[in-house]
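We append the chain.
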Amino acid sequence: MTAQETAATNVQLPTQDEAEINRRKTKKSLPALLTIFLLGTLMIQAFNLVFQNVGDSLGMSANAALVSTLPGIVLGVVCMLYGTLCDFISPKKMTLLGVFALIFGSLLGFFGSSNFWIVIVARIFQTAGGQVAGSVFLVMCMKYLTDKERAFYLGMFNAVYYASSAVGVFAGGIIASIDWKYLLLVPVLSVFFIPLIIKDTPDISGKGDHIDIFGITVFAVIAGLVAVYFSFPATWLLGVLALFIVIFALYVWKGKNPFLSKSFLTNKGYMSVLLALFVFYFFNFACVPIYNVIGEQIYHISLSQVSLCLTVVYIVATLVGCVSGVIHNAIGRIPMLVLSAVLMAIGAFGSAVLINNGFWLLTVMACIFIAGITMSYTPLYDSFSATLPQEENGRGVGIGDLMMNTSASIGMAVYSLLMSNGSFSSKGFFGIQPGSEAQVSNMFLVMGAASVLALAIVGIVHKNISKHKSDNE
């Protein structure tokens, strides 16, 4: 028996009465966690819109994008880190630490708003602090709720994410008129939820297992290097990334008690879910920029009109997120993934063929495409609890978050490469003329092909996903 397996046998799972208490406390605490996560996510959307205003007002126009990119890099790392730590550290302690970091960053940024670098540090604290609530929310759903409850709350979590995106996109036309420093104070509202967190959030730490500081640190460095590479591409970063991957692989295979065991990494069910997650979310980040291109280069409409249409798209995504738990409980995870991939394919291929038939019709196609992506979230994340033992759910969620963000970043890089390639617009299909129309239509064909690939992967790995049962079933 390996050291990891020995430690796992020492983990004291809760009794039936303790499990019921944890379930009730979790349900009470989830609304507060979801609200804090919403406040943090709104900040990300807001500063993605006003970062140039921040740079211009502080005489740092050339470096303005750092206000958005550096916190984004931190977000990519902490998503993985927090999920993993939830297997070892009390959810209550983690959440309180995150709220304090969120409030500290808000006050630091507001009172230090005259200094560009203080604002960036403040945004990093806000981003890192706000994500704790999101990670704890997901892990608590996996560990302590029943199947039907878990599906409902996963859907609501996804709905809140897209709702914040809708608000951010809608605010695009008016937010420039607001003094940006006051945006930094919005997360201070989190202070009102501290009593609820103290009262209701379970205070349960991992038992019989140690925190693998070395392994988690190396893996966090890998996650950070991936995020840095897609924000600031450089060939030498790939070499450093490869080195750390080799170090981590050797550590897992030879280490005494790594936080990711061999059995975790060879879990066919879990790895099948990660593969499906990678493909489903590959072009998630490309949804907004491609419609900006359509509006500007094909239909020559204003950014405010494009923002209005995208707001409609994100409202649809929010509504789909709200009902995805009900759909999941009604038809099951595999049929729902099939439906998700089909909707994505219809939206992408429909946009490719109808590129010249009106922007509002393309908005309908965008709604169908985003509905497919949104619908895939609940069955994919629900599968983590079905393919992993309860004591590893946090690690499963953390690596899942990392996979989703990495996939979308790679997809965005592929999108940018194809859209900047002159030959990509030289020939159109279905009667589409060469030029901007052909360029965008061909991009949609690629996105449609990725959707078909997602459908094929579900068909190939569905047994690895569906044959596993969660602890609550």
User: Anything to note?
Assistant: The chain has three domains: 18-210, 212-258, 266-473.
